[in-house]
Amino acid sequence: xxxxxxxxxxxxxxxxxxxxxxxxxxxxxxxxxxxxxxxxxxxxxxxxxxxxxxxxxxxxxxxxxxxxxxxxxxxxxxxxxxxxxxxxxxxxxxxxxxxxxxxxxxxxxxxxxxxxxxxxxxxxxxxxxxxxxxxxxxxxxxxxxxxxxxxxxxxxxxxxxxxxxxxxxxxxxxxxx
Length: 177
Prior knowledge:
It contains four helices and 13 strands. It is mostly beta strands. A hairpin with a 5-residue loop joins strand 6 (84-92) and strand 7 (98-106).
């Protein structure tokens, strides 16, 4: 029975991965890891919160029972691809720094409805009055997340006005299905 694969790379990075997808890696080892769903490949970054668990790898090596996280996330081979996200700046006022964003989130496989969406700009979670500017069909703006009225939508599109910094901004959209 296979316990894990240990893979080393030419750049001195490494990764240990169990057959069901839990892994431990050197600081940048997981950049070499991708997940395939059919003909599409996704970076492990989208799955790392669920499957980067050095404690699971250690328990398996020691012959110990699985940590509880394995019950929560299961087997990566049985998971679905995360929602796809598209963000476009429609317009930006360089004086005020206010930008209108068009955000689209969708499950391209139509397996699971989108449950909620969080938007993080330069490390700041968008919420409160700023999040209430979200406009779109069936969109509900809660304290720090966007959800849908029906809870059964596989695609959500909305516009949002946000404050951006001058220069480069990092916009992260976290969508859960």
